[in-house]
Write a structure and sequence with these properties.
alpha/beta; Rossmann fold; 2 domains; 3-stranded antiparallel sheet; 9 strands
């Protein structure tokens, strides 16, 4: 696996890889990689197999300060550079892009990307400015790598829709692939932050996914959406969660809806102790 730590090295490697192998797929990450991230590498390889004999899979690792609020966990965010490199090699990644903050936000940098639409509400309300940071760094990564495909996990479902909206609105010509959430055997969505759960919190954490499944079943039976969601929030509060939201939304616009269907999604986020957990399922 090649590693680039400067934009000049990135461009040199990419030019050679494109000439040798054709299209490029990008998997943006913030590191602290787990099996969920590695499933994105596998998905990128699968997507490329339908386009070329080989192609090139690029992963990026960059803990983006622009998407963390003043009281959020930038300094605490887990980092494991050596472990991440080893995992990417085993997963078959071709090129790792590891920019410094000065590469991503050089002196004089004056442009931000603001997305409305699916960025409004939910995470957008709880974490003001978060999606500006996400859209800006992803836009920069797209400009640096120039991928044909980019793979994002569905665990951060609102983020996925924000990226899709940005790519469509700016006519970037990149195919965005959403990849199913990878889960622990008990249903907990894999996340780099799960390592901060203590034993009692880890035992309670799968309740988030269980509640989403029970909500979906109740809604499909025709029960009233408002009362089902209210009962689910109460159940999660009893399990120890401080809920930010639990809602049924349109899967593209993220606007609330009151009935299940092929275009509906159940989304949830809340704190369990000091750890904030997100999850979602198709409704």
């Amino acid at each position: 696996m090649l590693i680039a730590r400067s934009r000049a090295a990135l461009r040199q490697h990419l030019d050679a890889l494109r000439a040798a192998h054709g299209p490029v797929a990008l998997v943006p990450t913030m590191g602290a990689l787990h099996e969920g991230h590695l499933s994105l590498i596998n998905a990128a390889r699968t997507e490329l197999s339908g386009m070329a004999d080989r192609g090139t899979v690029v992963a990026s690792i960059f803990v983006n300060p622009l998407q963390f609020g003043a009281n959020e966990d930038l300094a605490r965010y887990p980092r494991d550079e050596d472990g991440d490199r080893a995992k990417l090699v085993l997963a078959g990644c071709d090129l790792l892009w590891m920019p410094a903050v000065s590469d991503m936000y050089p002196a004089g940098d004056a442009t931000l990307i603001d997305v409305a639409g699916p960025a409004l509400g939910w995470e957008g309300d709880v974490r003001p400015g978060h999606f500006r940071g996400v859209a800006t760094v992803v836009g920069k990564l797209f400009g640096q790598v120039r991928p044909d495909i980019a793979c994002f996990g569905e665990k951060d479902f609102q983020q996925l829709q924000v990226v899709r909206r940005m790519v469509a609105d700016l006519a970037l010509g990149i195919r965005i692939v959403g990849v199913d959430t990878l889960r622990e055997p008990d249903g907990l969505a894999m996340s780099s932050r799960n390592i901060f759960l203590n034993a009692a919190e880890r035992k309670a954490a799968p309740e988030l996914h269980l509640v989403l499944q029970s909500v979906r079943a109740a809604l499909r039976e025709g029960q009233a959406c408002a009362s089902v969601l209210a009962a689910a929030r109460a159940r999660l509060q009893d399990a120890g969660f401080a809920m930010d939201y639990l809602a049924l939304v349109d899967a593209t616009t993220l606007l609330p809806v009151d009935a299940v269907g092929s275009d509906a999604r159940l989304i949830a986020a809340g704190r369990l102790g000091a750890v904030r957990l997100l999850d979602n399922i198709a409704a």
